[in-house]
Amino acid sequence: MTVWKTSVRNFLAHKGRMALSAVAVLLSVAFVCGTLVFTDTMNTTFDKLFAATSADVTVGPKSAEGADEMPENGRPESLPASVLAQVAKADGVKDVEGAVSSMSVTVVDRNNTNMGSETGAPTIAANWTRNDLRSMEISSGHAPRGPTEVMVDADTADKHHLKIGDELRTVAVTGDVKAKISGIASFTVTNPGAAVVFLDTATAQRTLLGAPDVFTHVNVTARPGVEDTELKKNVAAALGDTGAYKLQTQKEAADANKDSMGSFLDVMKYALLGFAGIAFLVGIFLIVNTFSMLVAQRTREIGLMRAIGSSRKQVNRSVLIEAVLLGVVGSVLGVAAGIGLAVGLMKLMGAVGMELSTGDLTIAWTTPVTGLVLGVVVTVLAAYIPARRAGKVSPMAALRDAGTPADAKSGWVRAGLGLVLTGTGAAGLWATTRVDKASEGSLYLGLGLVLTLIGFVVIGPLLAGVVVRGLGVVVLRLFGPVGRLAERNALRNPRRTGATGAALMIGLALVACLSVVGSSMVASATDELDRSVGTDYIVQSNTGQLVVPQAAEAVKKVPGIERVTEYKVLAAKLTNPDGTTEERHVTAADPTYPKDLRRTTVAGDLAKAYGETSMSVGSDYAAQHGIEVGDELTVAFKAGKTAKLTVRAITSDDTSVDQGAMYTSIATAGTYVSADRMPGNMIMFAMAEDGKEKEAYADLKAALAPYPQYKVQNQADFKQDLKDQIGQLLNIVYGLLALAIIVAVLGVVNTLALSVVERTREIGLMRAIGLSRRQLRRMIRLESVVIALFGALLGLGLGMGWGTSAQKLLALEGLGVLEIPWPTIVTVFVASAFVGLFAALVPAFRAGRMNVLNAIATDG
């Protein structure tokens, strides 16, 4: 009989015992393939959208921001209408039209409900053009014909139950416009979630750009037979001075938009693949345990194979072939499950407002190949050590049922190696806490994380002997002889217990680490707010938009407000005294700002930085460029002229609020930046008159009710908002880590199930001498609980060490408070006991159903 036939026979004979390992491979491969299909589908969706919405050639102002950037003053850069006549004269031009578009808008209904997406997709206001017919069609009504009409996209209309005749208000920096819906336009390609409204051209120019006869860009259509690249050259020749314009072909415009989205999609893709990698790592322990136990249970069979002439290599190869079969089965099922997972994610995104059509479902040939290769390679690597052990079994020892050879020397070597790795990793974590710059400590932190994790995995069997005994004293001894039996079972094979606990340890270590970091960030920011913020109320956008002038005026008119401070951010290029130049942002604020945010000054007087032609810089920037109080910096404002400003103060960067900020007064900035180019307020601060705090708070909210894109927060609101944001982020991460924890639970189930099979005769003897079914089940459940608690103790302890070291790096960025979230840690530890109970349900039930006589008579 060939090795291949033997391997297939053994695989089919033990398919039930390998089922959970196959599920672990399936889940891990599904996560990888699902991520790849989902992100590829998103890329396809955006590619089609950008290609459909781009004209053959687009002409825009050279100074216009990128597709993912908001204009500094909330008003897009524009071109004069005279450009249309110039472009129309170019050879190969079939059609020219001016377009107006802005993403610095908010659209609300009659009840002041924001029509914008909650997923981060933009709200776009534009004029309706012939180019829009490439990607949309009017499904009902008609395009706007005057200032009292507006058209909305069908997805937004469906989501907010809008119909023709309903009133919408479009809010932009140049004013508000109310109009009734005259039509609804449907996308002929997938709209990922943007809310789009269309105004007539004159209204769009006035509302979005604040001037007539200007456009944000010009759409140029080529005559039949004229290539886009040729048309672009002809248009450039017709315009003459192309230094003032940005010309893009359809492909170039689509690629530019894709690049702006690509970085976001890549971050999401690699983050999800990272969690899939964690699941694979956890699955390795499950597969190692499965094959180790299968080899142990087939000791006599392996001995017979060796006795009739099979070589070590053939035995080794037989086990590895079984691993390949397991990997192939799990991976094939995983690829199919991954496609289903991607579709499920698309439906989930649709439920929260980001529409992705299954018609765009993209399955690249590399996706199933990647899933299959990963699944098979990981499975074979995990099975290599058990296969190697199987090959070492001598025929005589196997026929005596002596099991796989115990190698005391390798145990000591493993323990020594584990101690060295753990010690080196701990030294890396300690070094992290001693550095002066966060950039220096990140390398030590990464080294410490990796080495301590590997060290704990390697040293797991040694730790199992110590920790399980300690848990036995605290937990298992309460259950008398049954508890002691469970403890001995867990200690019987420390290597197996260590591997099973390590699988759970990895997921819980990451949970504990992130919990410590998240709690410390919230505590540090809260402490910083208590020490630094001296204002009562903060006004800012939910989506990062600037505060429009009409909303700013509404804030200033609220009764009971003692002072209002405006805060603007301007892009500039700084030339330093050492001759270097840097592109930075300069904060222009009212002179009252130092009262609203108490900044520590290491040199000079911050109040003087708000004087004429004066500014401040942060301590890190000053140290980097040798800047002292009294030095002069050349500041070239992107939106205006070049200024020479004198440094009057250097502020400490030992803070998490406004770290590195450079301040000047709004009056100084206004000298070099014209009013129409001056940015809007990024944030506003308001201080109530004494005794009028409650009334002013209510009045501020009422004043900004027509502008739902802004929120009014007192300090308690701000802290809660920060806590909620970090909490939501952690919940997403915990949800992704759940896959690794599920795989770890499968590992506990599989270990117990195989252990029950391995101890069949022993269980029969125990039943024969009086152990009841109930006691047997309890013994297995307690064994499972102690293994789960062992993994939880290791994971939580390791994770808290990681989190504490990471917080020391955050302290260098101003987040100096360490907070251990004990309620979370205790909850996770207690939950681990329930995980152990859950994992033991099926193995304990199967053990309890064994026939005593058949169990005693079995060969194991």
UniProtKB/TrEMBL annotation:
Cellular location(s): Cell membrane
Membrane topology note: Multi-pass membrane protein
Family note: Belongs to the ABC-4 integral membrane protein family.
Domain of life of the source: Bacteria
Keywords of the record: Cell membrane, Membrane, Transmembrane, Transmembrane helix
Keyword set includes Cell membrane: yes
All residue ranges annotated as the ABC3 transporter permease C-terminal domain in the record: 275-395, 736-851
Membrane-crossing segments per the record: 270-296, 319-343, 363-385, 412-431, 443-476, 497-517, 732-757, 782-802, 822-845
Main location: membrane
PANTHER family in UniProt: ABC TRANSPORTER PERMEASE YTRF, MEMBRANE COMPONENT OF TRANSPORTER-RELATED
Pfam families: FtsX, MacB_PCD
Keyword check for DNA damage: no
UniProt-recorded name of the protein: ABC transporter permease
Annotated ranges, domain MacB-like periplasmic core: 19-237, 500-699
